[in-house]
Amino acid sequence: MNIDIEVPEGLDPQLTALGWMVGSWEGTGNGTDHDGRDFEFEQRIQFWPGGGPYMYYLAQAFELDADGKPGAMLDMETGFWRPRPDASLEVTLTNSGGWTEVLVGKIQITRIDLRSDAVMRTESASVEHSAGQRLYGKVEGDLMYALDRATTQHELRPHMWARLKRV
């Protein structure tokens, strides 16, 4: 079996398991909003070494107009990915919609499974996000992900999924 993993030169050895994610990724995806309406979006995700045993993460999603061009921002989140020596992973995210989420999971070479450990919302949060799970993977050189969310109004269900190319 041949596994294609890039590890950037000079990367903190503790980040080796996430080395294949380092860089910028862009593409389009699909989603279902919390009211059950389908939508398409453009996604931009960046992973950077943070100068310590963590990766800095920034994700932005934009509405697509009738011509398929990115328009208004739908969502933005930022955070830190902290791999552990046992291949577990801790992720802290803060979302522009008014919540912070702690996710925990497992790194399996080029597949990462995460689930919410805790979610905190502001009083004015745009969605009453209460739990989530995420899957990230490298497929044919692309970054693919799926994000499921639960709110106080509905159980865990698919929310956003995309295939992104390295830029």
The CATH class assignment is Mainly Beta
Helical content band: under 10%
Number of helices: 0
Strands side by side in the biggest sheet? 1-2-3-4-5-6-7-8-9-10
- Got a strand count? 10
- The CATH architecture name reads Beta Barrel
What is the string of SSEs from the N terminus onward? EEEEEEEEEE
Whole-number tally of structural domains: 1
Mean pLDDT: 93
Structural class computed from helices and strand pairing: mainly beta
Could you give a short account of the major beta sheet?
10 strands, antiparallel, barrel
Terminus-to-terminus distance: 27 Å
Name the overall outline: globular
The CATH homologous superfamily is named Calycin beta-barrel core domain
Radius of gyration computed on alpha carbons: 16 Å
Organism: Tessaracoccus oleiagri
Motif (GXWXGXG): 23-29
EC number: 5.99.-.-
Enzyme class: isomerase
Written overview of the protein:
- The protein has one domain (13-166): Lipocalin (Beta Barrel).
- It contains no helices and ten strands.
- It is mostly beta strands and 167 residues long.
- A hairpin with a 3-residue loop joins strand 5 (88-95) and strand 6.
- Helix content is 0%, strand content 66%.
- It has strands spanning 23-32, 38-52, 54-64, 70-83, 88-95, 99-108, 111-121, 129-139, 142-151, 157-166.
